[in-house]
Amino acid sequence: MSLPYIFFLLALTIVERHQRLFYYILKVIYSLFILGRDLWVMVVSASPYEHMIGKPDVKYVANIHGNEAVGRELLLHLIQYLVTSYDTDPYIKWLLDNTRIHLMPSMNPDGFAISKEGQCDTIHGRHNARRYDLNRNFPDFFKVNTKQIQPETEAVKEWISKIQFVLSGSLHGGALVASYPFDNTPNAIFQTYAHSPSISPDDDVFRHLSLVYSNNHAKMSRGVSCKSGSPRFENGITNGAAWYPLTGGMQDYNYLWHGCMEITLEISCCKYPPAHELPKYWQDNKQSLIKYLAEVHRGAHGFVMDENGNPVERAAIRVKGRDVSYHTTKYGEFWRILLPGTYRVDISAEGYLPQEVEFIVIDNHPTLLNITLHSAKESGLNHSTVKILDPVTTSTTKPGNDGTIIFPED
């Protein structure tokens, strides 16, 4: 069956009408308003209208380059697939019961509006209406970004600041690869070794997340070269800067400013392929899109509370050896995606004694860490250390033969 490209607002209307009677409890639409045009977001979850305490928020963003059209269509199909599979697929039910999934099919509707179906390699429509590349428009850790901030970028920045996303994917086209941070490099390296990897503190986790997407994709893990002279990527993944360094990318911004682990997913060799090819792209990416989001339940999570059981907001969570800070929500929640191993984490907040916790992460269950911080005024201590070598794991599990969480193999 052919899946034609659908004008975006019409597509949302069709999805909404088709599912309103049966699936209203699973989804809600909201928008980020910019200059008379909306950036629409659909939330798909067992609790779409409000945050589920203790359960993470994740997102996909597509069509940041307007002429890269496959991602926007795939997210529309993903919305429909998730809500119609909730009552029939135990894995999907588990995912929606334990995760809030935010899907933005188009970050650049103006660019898409002037793009043309069948154009695989042109840049017409790549930029927004003001001719800015939105994936070069975010603040950058390594180099001052002098480009004028665009309304779409500002809207997404505000969105990310209001919702504490844990995991994210940005959908692009023009290659077949999962690219992970860093996209940029320190200036000295940038000038001398333009195509050297720029390694993040969480390189092991980012490589794993990229492999999850690649290995569940129909072709990506083969390292397919899209055309003569284009690179082949081993296992279908690459460090962003090793491919080509860039300033102002969205994935580095998510990670360094907000502690959200985002990778860039190049999902089609042709940027705007003919509509009759859409079913193939959906089948190629369907499992990857779902399995990737489930990785948010890997690692450690929990709550930071005070001695009276009140949540400590904005407590800094820093895993030793990984110099990127994460912060608790207003409910005291935190999540940290980690691979199996033993870790030490420092927890600190203004007015409280810092605490160090040693804990273990295992493969099949996320480790639960509930941490109590003591007031600095009421204690003679200046630091405390806790060891949790027998990990407490959450009872919520993915469906499996033995009830354990089953993650995709690397």
UniProtKB/TrEMBL annotation:
<keyword id="KW-0479">Metal-binding</keyword>
<feature type="domain" description="Peptidase M14">
    <location>
        <begin position="1"/>
        <end position="296"/>
    </location>
</feature>
<keyword id="KW-0645">Protease</keyword>
<dbReference type="InterPro" id="IPR000834">
    <property type="entry name" value="Peptidase_M14"/>
</dbReference>
<feature type="active site" description="Proton donor/acceptor">
    <location>
        <position position="266"/>
    </location>
</feature>
<keyword id="KW-0378">Hydrolase</keyword>
<dbReference type="InterPro" id="IPR050753">
    <property type="entry name" value="Peptidase_M14_domain"/>
</dbReference>
<dbReference type="InterPro" id="IPR057247">
    <property type="entry name" value="CARBOXYPEPT_ZN_2"/>
</dbReference>
<protein>
    <recommendedName>
        <fullName>Peptidase M14 domain-containing protein</fullName>
    </recommendedName>
</protein>
<dbReference type="Pfam" id="PF00246">
    <property type="entry name" value="Peptidase_M14"/>
</dbReference>
<dbReference type="GO" id="GO:0008270">
    <property type="term" value="F:zinc ion binding"/>
</dbReference>
<keyword id="KW-0862">Zinc</keyword>
<dbReference type="GO" id="GO:0005615">
    <property type="term" value="C:extracellular space"/>
</dbReference>
<dbReference type="GO" id="GO:0004181">
    <property type="term" value="F:metallocarboxypeptidase activity"/>
</dbReference>
<keyword id="KW-0121">Carboxypeptidase</keyword>
<dbReference type="GO" id="GO:0016485">
    <property type="term" value="P:protein processing"/>
</dbReference>
<comment type="similarity">
    <text>Belongs to the peptidase M14 family.</text>
</comment>
<dbReference type="GO" id="GO:0006518">
    <property type="term" value="P:peptide metabolic process"/>
</dbReference>
<dbReference type="Pfam" id="PF13620">
    <property type="entry name" value="CarboxypepD_reg"/>
</dbReference>
<keyword id="KW-0325">Glycoprotein</keyword>
<dbReference type="InterPro" id="IPR057246">
    <property type="entry name" value="CARBOXYPEPT_ZN_1"/>
</dbReference>
